[in-house]
User: Fold this.
Amino acid sequence: MPGFGDPRARLLVVGLAPAAHGGNRTGRVFTGDASGDFLFAALHRAGYANQAASVARGDGLVLTGAYVAAAARCAPPGNKPTPAEFARCRPFLVREIAALPDLRVVLALGAHGWRAAVEALAAHGAKRPRPLPRFAHGAETRVGTVALLGSYHVSQQNTFTGRLTPRMLDAVLKRTREIS
Assistant:
């Protein structure tokens, strides 16, 4: 499933994969599920989205300065794509990165999004950092000319337990504004 957003985006948000009952059902990543509700509310508060929720394609959601994509293109069994699935899907993410000429910041949601973003940026021509920077919420590093920031994934496993709060995601999005 392709990503979506502003073709002049300075921020790319990379998630894991379309959720079986969200993006896989609606045809747009992070749309129609609780993870998307959490993400789009934060993007709205940060000024990247014109509305705080997205329930279906064509619901009026417009992203400004941001583009949202997934590291894997289909809902994986058990919500865990294999390394081979990530590798098969990487060219799609690389093409999306290539299509964003103003890209300055990548926000990786979760450790899988972090790794996928590093690999896709390297495949696009950025020098792969050695050693690979470790993922953490609020982590920040550079991959070529792009700043890479990390946030816990917006999944219900994190948001319902308080591991990721709106305030925590807002702080990371504030940082994306500062450096983009």
